[in-house]
Amino acid sequence: MALRDSDAQERRLAAYAPRVYGLLVRMVGNRDTAEDLTQETLLRAFRAFETYRPEGKFRAWIFRIARNAARDWLRRRPLEPALGLDADWPERALASPRRQSRPEDRLLHGERASKVEAALRRLPDPDREVLLLRYYGELAFNDIAKVTGEPLGTVLARAHRALKKMAELVPEEES
Amino acid sequence: MTRCPKPEMWVRYAAEELADRPRRALETHLESCDACRREVRDLARGLEAMESLEREPALRPEMLDTLERRLRVAAANRPTRPRVITLVARYGWVAAAAAVVAATLVLYWPAESPPIVLPGNHQAESLQEVAAAIELLRVADNGTTPLPPQNLFPAGRQNELDLLLELDDAGLLLDYLMSQDKLQG
Fold first, then answer.
1. Pick from A17, A94, A173: which is nearest to B48 by CB?
2. Would you say A130 and A144 are in contact if contact means Cβ atoms under 8 Å apart?
């Protein structure tokens, strides 16, 4: 029974690895660290599974651990490149593959993804964090407020600022 | 045109996080407000831009292998403990919360309150009965019993008797009735 539980927990957590990585790589700014923190996040969650209280969304719980892991890392490493300044910032390799069947589509979409990445880098850390938690965690703003420990109004104000900035910096997609 | 809602409200609208009623109210406002339509369009464009990012980026196979290995090691090192302890660890807070609620109920269970005495020595045991009594009074005296003063209630709702029930404030009701000499103390 215990083994079956562990297996199920491992599978459940491993399924979050890509999204957690997607959040972390944009929070800490480089791939190696994001990979390490992704593993650390899922291991922490695995160890804490037995005490997990099903009082909120499981996904929000995972992303709270991930976000805190990134914050801890950033605090411990003040001399590391600031968010978004790392040359290893992921760009085309992480672009969505949708509509990339034709080479010209791939090129266009890659360019757009690069612009989105560049725009994200220009956001203040807390504003970017809200967008990332919403996108990768698919969390409602209420849940994001719980994850970050901020009032809902603050989270919405950050989202508002960040979305307006993204709209300003990323050209409209041609249909 | 109604007053423009706060920008934060449009964030929830653009993200489709609003319930039907507020969403419809905002849509009504949008029909007559160019500025808010522009606001929503910008926010939607911001959200749409994020969609260019791969939501589930491919991870290096080596990284996934390492993760799997580390999870297996963590599973092997997990202390085994009886199922009941696991359940207590996981759900003990439910029992604790239930105990707190039970203790609170015992401590604060309302003592039997004196009945509300209405004109003619009728007794009312609930707020609904008080409200019904007011309505009866108004019928009996051809509507000369005034309704509660307007400034007690939100604009536009002053004459709705059911608001008294919504407010669920027996004290306010009783104060009002006493002030109108309609209720015996």
1. A173
2. yes
Asked if residue A174 belongs to a domain, the reply is no
List pLDDT tens digits, range B68-122: 999 988 888 877 655 555 555 566 666 677 777 777 766 666 555 444 444 444 4
Q: Which pTM does this prediction carry?
A: 0.65
Where helices occur in B51-82 by DSSP H, the ranges are 61-76
Residue with the two structure tokens 């009623």:
B21
Of B12, B53, B67, Cβ closest to residue A141: B12
The DSSP-derived string for B86-135 is HHHHHHHHHHHHHHHHHHHHHHHPPPPPPPEEEGGGEEE-SHHHHHHHHH
Q: State which residues form the domain around A132.
A: 2-169
Say which DSSP state B151 is in. G
CB atoms within 10 A of CB B144: 8
How many domains is chain A built from? 1
A23 min Cα distance to partner chain B (Å): 9
d(CA A146, nearest CA chain B) in Å: 16
